[in-house]
Amino acid sequence: MILVTGANGQLGRRIVQHLIAREPSLLDGGLGVSVRDAARANELASRGAIVRQADFDQPDSLAAAFAGIRRLVLVSTDGPAAQRSARHRRAIDAALAAGVSHILYTSFLGADCPTELAVAHRDTEAALEHSGVAHTVLRNTLYADDLRYLAEPALTHGVLRLPAGAGRVSLVSRDELAQAIAAATLAPRLDKRVYELTGQAAFPYADIAARIARVSGRPLAYEAVSADAYAGSLVARGVPAWHADARAALFASVAAGRLAAVSHDFAALVGHPPKSLDCLIHEYFAPRSPA
Predict the structure, then answer these.
(1) Cα 273 to Cα 173: distance, rounded to the nearest angstrom
(2) Which of 176, 186, 190, 194 is nearest to 261 (CA)?
């Protein structure tokens, strides 16, 4: 049986959907999901997924959740790095005790970056290596979906301010990343221990802003700002200080060139490359015709 953790989350739910699309027979007892709130997984249960309640902060809940699981898709959790690292270590320990034969972990392309958001991924990759269990690390690039949250407010005043300098980044939507993770989960054989799931090409945010402006028909320029200034602007909008600092450090890593890598691993798993940046921007920002 395959089990996907965090199946009520944005990435986890999409992984489950793509697993079902690729292999409908999984719904005959072959697909489980673990969630903290089983009541929110009614739709998955109605489709035939086996719902198991599990909370990574309650280790005793993990033994039952992972019982009988062959492949575990460990979807990274949210929160401060120390909390996330501890949760992931508990999940790995529980998986080993339950006899899970293979763990697929949703990591981050910048796992080696000196940022709060990368620490838990780096710790978890190390824990998997130390555990001795067969595992596959799927390093996701930045989510293209987040362009909407970055650019929509910026479009109101025409300036996208980020501490990303002239660094380049490739972007892939959560849905396509989930598609690649599902493909890896179902693959009869995986040729690599680590897959880097990136876009077709990497672009600086000045270029991304110009493309958004062109598609949306609204002016948008890019302005590089300091990490401190950016973090301060987030805190002023109500973002917790630790998260604001982490996001600022993430874009500083972009500025340092740490997220510019481009690979063909997505196509190797899925059979075709992910959508181009222009396609994604058109989906997110093209004016909609009145219904």
Answers:
(1) 12
(2) 194
Cα–chain center distance at 100? 23
What's the pTM?
0.95
Residues 276 and 215: their CA atoms lie apart, in Å, by: 14
- The dihedral sign for the CA sequence 185, 191, 195, 201: negative
pLDDT of residue 196: 98
Model confidence pLDDT, tens digit, residues 170-205: 999 999 999 999 999 999 999 999 999 999 999 999
pLDDT tens for each residue of 83-102:
999 999 999 999 999 999 99
Closest CA to 218 of 167, 154, 275: 154
Dist CA 103 CA 239 (whole Å): 33
Q: What phi, psi does 210 have (nearest 5°)?
A: -65, -40
**Mean per-residue pLDDT for 39-52?**
91
Which residues are CB-contacts of 230 (< 8 A; sequence separation ≥ 6)? 161, 162, 163, 244, 247, 248, 251
Q: How many CA atoms lie within 13 A of 291 on its CB side?
A: 0
Whole-number Å distance between alpha carbons of 172 and 115: 21
DSSP 38-84: GGGGHHHHHHT-EEEE--TT-THHHHHHHTT-SEEEE----S-HHHH
Residue ranges of the alpha helices (H) in 197-240?
A: 205-216, 227-236
Q: What share of the chain is helix, strand, coil (3-state, %, to 5)?
A: 50, 20, 35
Question: CA Rg, the chain, in Å?
Answer: 19
Torsion of CA 3, 9, 196, 26, to 10 degrees: 30
